[in-house]
């Protein structure tokens, strides 16, 4: 009788379960885990953080388990990974990784990022000496064993968007040249969000320009016939996405505050372009860039009615207080043009960086 019972028991253990029972059993196990397991949650206390170039910022991120009051289960090491999302969300740029005592930062973030770790469940990222390129959305990912969760935080910078076209004139930049043009003028190519905020602040510009996601757009606050028609509504007009190598437009650049002094050089005579460059160097500075005059105008309220050379060979002047003979209708950085460098005489704007 004992032998017979043992044989039956073996048969039951090795028997293939019914497919329907297997499916139900599998679903039942998952259901128990979801309801009662210590599910890992990652939370950002603020979805958007504001800072400025040269400053320090903390991107908030905390993690905990839904059914426990402790940060981790203690069974697995916690791995924290911060990445930056690209404008098209197709790629991620590694920023910082931490697991146990191991820490690693990447690229331009090396030496500038670390975890705040104010508590055992704090995965907040501190970024020091903020750069223009740091603007964007960051993902905080926490992994413990087979569990993981993420949160996204946007880093916004105080700054100004300005349209830019080179000496060659309107619509002469492909996307890559547009990126470089902005970098050359102490700025970066603007994002759609930055252009949209600038439009809400009153930016009106009829020429279409590249944005960081590869789209071509322009902001209109005063609808008129040459700019989409006078009967259209104000807004940011979208030309769509174009070939980054072959298509040519202007560009919208973004810049923030700077660590230095922007000023109009008091000089006994007006200068050619080459003389202007040398005059700034003699004064312990460099000829200013377009991004620097826009930042001084927008962020510092710089106001000067004297037209002066800038590094790209253009002549401009910043007006914060509109008045007769000096931009009577609006506060703006007034554009004189790209005069003959060898024969035209103007003043010069200089920039001296702080150490």
TrEMBL record:
Q: Which SMART domains match?
A: IG, IGv, LINK
Q: Which GO terms describe its biological process?
A: cell adhesion; central nervous system development; glial cell differentiation; positive regulation of neuroblast proliferation; skeletal system development
Q: So what family is this one in?
A: Belongs to the HAPLN family.
Keywords for the protein's UniProt record, in alphabetical order: Disulfide bond, Extracellular matrix, Glycoprotein, Hyaluronic acid, Immunoglobulin domain, Repeat, Secreted, Signal
What the entry lists under CDD domains is as follows:
Ig_LP_like (cd05877), Link_domain_HAPLN_module_1 (cd03518), Link_domain_HAPLN_module_2 (cd03519)
**Domain Ig-like: where?**
38-156
Where would you find this protein in the cell?
Secreted, Extracellular space, Extracellular matrix
**PANTHER family (alphabetical):** AGGRECAN/VERSICAN PROTEOGLYCAN, HYALURONAN AND PROTEOGLYCAN LINK PROTEIN 1
Q: What's its job?
A: Stabilizes the aggregates of proteoglycan monomers with hyaluronic acid in the extracellular cartilage matrix.
Q: What is the organism of origin for this protein?
A: Cairina moschata
Give the protein's recorded name: Hyaluronan and proteoglycan link protein 1
């Amino acid at each position: 009788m004992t032998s017979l019972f043992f044989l039956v028991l073996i048969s039951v253990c090795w028997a293939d379960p019914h497919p329907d029972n297997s499916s139900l059993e599998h679903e039942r196990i998952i259901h128990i885990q979801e309801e009662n397991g210590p599910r890992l949650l990652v939370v950002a206390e603020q979805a958007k953080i504001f800072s400025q170039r040269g400053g320090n910022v903390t991107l908030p991120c905390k993690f905990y388990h839904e059914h426990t009051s402790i940060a981790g289960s203690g069974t697995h090491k916690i791995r924290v990974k911060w990445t930056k999302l690209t404008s098209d969300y197709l790629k991620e740029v590694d920023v910082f990784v931490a697991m146990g005592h191991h820490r690693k930062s990447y690229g331009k973030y090396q030496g500038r990022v670390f975890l705040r770790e104010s508590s055992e469940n704090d995965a907040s990222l501190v970024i020091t000496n903020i750069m223009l390129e740091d603007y964007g959305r960051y993902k905080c990912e926490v992994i413990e064993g087979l569990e993981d969760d993420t949160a996204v935080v946007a880093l916004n910078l105080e700054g100004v968007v300005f349209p830019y076209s080179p000496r060659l004139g309107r619509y002469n930049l492909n996307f890559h040249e547009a990126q470089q043009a902005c970098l050359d003028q102490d700025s970066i190519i603007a994002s759609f969000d930055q252009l949209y905020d600038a439009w809400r602040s009153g930016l009106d510009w009829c020429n279409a320009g590249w944005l960081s996601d590869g789209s071509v757009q322009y902001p209109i606050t005063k609808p008129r016939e040459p700019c989409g028609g006078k009967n259209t509504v104000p807004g940011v007009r979208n030309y769509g996405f174009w070939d980054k190598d072959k298509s040519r437009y202007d560009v919208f650049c973004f810049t923030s505050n700077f660590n230095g002094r922007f000023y109009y050089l008091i000089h006994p005579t007006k200068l050619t372009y080459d003389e202007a460059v040398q005059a700034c160097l003699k004064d312990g500075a460099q000829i200013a860039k377009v991004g620097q005059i826009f930042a001084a105008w927008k962020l510092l309220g710089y106001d000067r009615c004297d037209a002066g050379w800038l590094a790209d060979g253009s002549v401009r002047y910043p007006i914060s207080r509109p008045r007769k003979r000096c931009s009577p209708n609006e506060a703006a950085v007034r554009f004189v043009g790209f005069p003959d460098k060898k024969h035209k005489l103007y003043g010069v704007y200089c920039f001296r960086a702080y150490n």
